Amino acid sequence: MPFNTALTRKLGIAVPIVQGGMQWVGYAELASAVSNAGGLGLITALTQPTPEDLRKEIRKCRTMTQKPFGVNITLLPALAPPDYGAYTRVIIEEGIRIVETAGNSPGPVIRELKKAGITILHKCTTIRHAQSAVKLGVDFLSIDGFECAGHVGESDITNFILLSRARQSLGGVPFIASGGFADGQGLAAALALGAEGINMGTRFMCTVEAPIHQNIKDEIVKAQETDTALVLRKWRNTSRLYGNKVAKAALKVEQEDTTGDFGKSGIGQYMSGQRGRQVFVNGDVDYGVWTAGQVIGLIHDVPTCDVLIKRIEKEAIETLQKNQSLWSADGQAKL
Question: Mind telling me which residue stretches traverse the membrane in this protein (predicted)?
Answer without folding.
Answer: none
